[in-house]
Amino acid sequence: MKVEASEVEGRKVFSVRAFNQGISSWLERLPTVWVEGEVTELRRQERWASVFFTLKDPESGACLAVQMKRGLFDGLRLALVNGERIHVYGRPELYEQRGEFHLRALTIERYGLGEHLAALERLKEKLAGEGLFAAEHKRPLPRFPRLIGLVTGNDAAAKRDVLTAITTRFPPAQVLVAETFVQGARAAPAIATAVGDLCERGVDVLIVARGGGSFEDLLPFSDERLVRAVASCPVPVVSAVGHEQDMPLLDLVADVRASTPSVAGRLVVPDLAELRGSLDRARAALDRGARRACERYADRLGATHERLRRAPLLALERRQARLDGVHGRLLALSPRSTLDRGYAIVRAADGLVRVPPRAGTELGIDVAGGSFGAVTR
User: Fold this and answer.
1) pLDDT at 250 over 80
2) Residue 46 lies in a domain
3) Cβ(361)–Cβ(348) under 8 Å?
4) CA pair distance 320, 316, nearest whole angstrom
5) Most buried of 104, 243, 284, 358 (most Cβ within 10 A)?
6) Are 94 and 20 in contact (CB under 8 A)?
7) Phi and psi dihedrals of 159, rounded to 5?
8) 360 and 264, same structural domain?
């Protein structure tokens, strides 16, 4: 591909596009090569057409950007992780639009674990054997922490993300911040010391946060001293180090792992708006319950009042009915009732006449209409 230059004041001048195209055409002439290095900053998303990572020279620290089609990468089934040493076969390319140089990978072969990764694997196995990563040791986060501890660097990003998430979600929260080294040889002991200091100052939960970085940048968070300090911490610890794909040993020993510092901030405090909504719903439910209870008691009271109002009348009616019954029976048994049916009562001087008396006996006779006398013959 021929790249044309413009003539400007007696000199040949290439546009940026033309220059990049020229460099790209020259790079295409180079042969495919094998390159050895350690994997860092591995980035892969399902929606991406390519997988991106950086090859790093463990001795000099020189870096090379690598790009590989996702289909080819997935087909190798290597399950690469940061820190692993590999051989990459590919050709150099230049992304003309941005002028970015990278190696277009055609295949990858596993060379072996990098020195750091091998050491981490040995430490991981050792600590796991001691039970430091066991699920039964994980503690739940407090529902309403009185004081939150935050261990982070003095860079604004991670600290700002955590504090913004906490204050946005729960403005009354109290946060105690310990700024310390989060990178380099001094970071691990400094972070471990900060964890202990915050625990002594009475925090209820602790967040250890750091933004993203290379594999080497995050090595302090896999240091044995820090891991043991977190394991012995008397309060729950939330790890928020790096990005989703990063997994330092701190993530394994912490009680909760957050994918980002912002997520960690949201995990340690309740949502004030949700709490108010829950309180409003509970208040409304209590109000409805109280109203229903009052209505039930009012109904019962009304029914009781009606029964009490009607009880004397019912008692009188029942007693009147009983009296009427007794009265009827008494009337039926009364001599007067017998007389009304046409019978008569006959008396002589010595009492009621039950057998015919002798002639000439004076009698007194009672009938329904009155009395009269008679003499037997």
Assistant:
1) yes
2) yes
3) yes
4) 6
5) 104
6) yes
7) -60, -45
8) no
Rounded to whole angstroms, how far apart are CA atoms 103 and 109? 15
- Asked, for residue 3, whether it belongs to a domain, the answer is no
**355 and 264 share one domain:** no
Give the span between the Cα atoms of 4 and 295, in whole angstroms.
93
As a whole number of angstroms, the longest Cα–Cα distance in the chain is: 188
pLDDT tops 80 at residue 193? yes
Return d(Cα 240, Cα 12) in angstroms, integer.
54
- Which residue matches tokens 């939330």? 238
* Main-chain dihedrals φ then ψ at residue 32, nearest 5 degrees: -70, 145
For residue 99, give its domain range.
Answer: 31-113
Q: What is the pLDDT of residues 280-308, one digit of tens each?
A: 999 999 999 999 999 899 888 988 888 88
Q: Number of folded domains in the chain? A: 3
Q: Is residue 177 part of a domain?
A: yes
pLDDT at 112: 57
In the predicted structure, residue 241 carries a pLDDT above the cut 80: yes
Q: Tell me, yes or no, whether 330 lies in a domain.
A: no
CATH number at residue 48: 2.40.50.140
Q: Are residues 161 and 100 in the same domain?
A: no
**pLDDT top residue among 361 and 139:** 139
- When pLDDT is cut at 50, 70 and 90, the band that residue 340 belongs to is confident
CB contact set of 226 (below 8 Å; sequence gap of 6+) = 188, 191, 192, 195, 220, 250
Which structure tokens are listed for 226? 């820090």
